[in-house]
Structure formats: structure tokens, C-alpha cells
Amino acid sequence: MHSVCDAVMSTKEEAKRREGFKIALVQLSVGPDKAKNVAAAVSEIHKAKEKGAHVVALPECFNSPYGTKYFNEYAEEVPSGATSRALSRAAAEAGVCVVGGTVPERCGDKLYNTCTVWDDSGKLLAQYRKMHLFDIDIPNKITFKESEVLSAGDHVSTFDYRGVRFGIGICYDIRFPELAHLMAQQGCSMLLYPGAFNMTTGPKHWELLGRARANDCQLWVGLVSPARDTDAGYVAWGHTTLIDPWGQVKGQLDEKPGVIVEDIDLKVVEEVRSQIPIRIQRRTDVYDTVSKNK
Ligand SMILES: NC(=O)CCC(=O)C(=O)O
Asked: Has the ipTM of the complex gone over 0.95?
């Protein structure tokens, strides 16, 4: 039987929980050995738990090198594939929520760039397929065409954990403020973008876009990259970054493997939103962003 004292304690604990949580953004070294990549991710999930993390986020394409020629070979079904099963088990064993970066997902004859999210019992909480495919051509710098191999997702994906609503975008998705706005409108306090920018657009836009989305949606943003491997066909910028709802960088790695473990204070979301009330000042009589697909 629960006493009044127990009830007061649990209300206090609940109130504290609502104030925030600890996040780990893991910048992994990714190579051609899939099993090794997945084992490294699992090991980092356990280490993050030891550092007190409640939510652990991995980078884009963490089980495979990033490149159109790799996606078919490394693709797995969700949630039956080996990588899904390993993430589910790691989340349950460590007792954390795992935002599983991305993996090439096979579904029928289609391939997607997909993020899976696992709760602390190992249950699949969310599955998001990259909506804006990375097709760019900057002459003499970088040409990339994900759409040669991948199909685009068409659903916005948010999930709730510890009473907090999170939204997911994948890398190039961050260039599209409409997606971020939809997730903010749906009640998100934090957006997580597993991403692998490159040596041309990374220095120019990675932090800028993260700060822009944090500032215009007034929420926390986490950008999670693989570490840089200069021998890889696609060289990632790295610089995993955590940004607060004021648009300020609260933590940033360089190009090497590493992890950011930080407290996420949810009161800052309310503070910014009440002090600069753009959310209620939007001229939706003139413009709007609406979702046509939940
Ligand atoms: N993996 C990606 O979507 C890369 C996006 C990118 O580098 C960009 O500049 O945008």
C-alpha cells in the first residue's frame, strides 16, 4: 500500500523529471565492418548510461559507410534486422532510450535512410524515413544523389519519452524549416538530427542550420555526425553539436570520435517561448505550414 509520503515523493520525482534529462550525442567512428560498427555503438550506449544519460543518440549511417554504392549491401529490414535487434537489446539492457542514428532500411524492393528509436524496455518507439533526399551538385566539390538508390519517406515522426516530445530529421532534412516547424507545432521540445555533412557544406552550414532551427522553433537541437575518416569515399565533417533554445551552442566536438553528455533543461524552452513569443505572433491569417501526412 502506498502512503501519503510515497505519493508526495513520486510527485516530486515526476516534477523533477519534467524539468529535464541527460542526453548523450555519440560521434562514432564508422568503417566497412558492419558488425564492428554495431558493436561500437552498443558499447557507447552502455558507456553513456554509466555517465548518467537517459537518451543516447547515434549518427547517420552508423552501421555502414555513407555512400550510394553501400546502401543495398548494408540494408536491413526494420525491426527484424540484426542492427535493430542489437539496438533494442542495448536500450533494454542499459535502460536508456536509443535514437538509433540511421541505417539503410530494406522494405520490399525499396531502400530508405531510416532512424529507429527504442525505449528503455527495447520497444520500437518510432521509425522515421529521411524525407528530403540528399541530391546536390557543387561542381569540383561534391556531387551526391541519394535518390539514385533511396526512396524518400513521407511521414513526420515524433516520439515521447520521459514526458518530453522529440522530433527526428535526418541530415539534409535540416535544410527544410517547414519540417522543423511541423514538429515544433506538434509539441516537440527537442529535435534530433543524425547527419553526415561533408567537408564542403559542413564548415559553411552545419552549425548555422542547427542554430537556425533551434532559434526559429525555440527548442533544443542535437546534431549527431560520424567521426571523420579521411580515407573514406565520403568524408564527414564531424562536429556533433548540441544547441539550446536560444540558438547557443552548448557543446561541440571536433572531427574525432567522442561524445557530448549534457543536461537538457526544459525550463529554457518555456523561458525563450514566453520571453520572445513568436509562436503566438505568427501571421497564420497570411501564411501557414500544415502537415498533409501525419
Ligand atoms: N547526408 C546528408 O544528407 C548530407 C547533407 C549535407 O551534407 C548538406 O550539405 O546538406
From this structure: yes
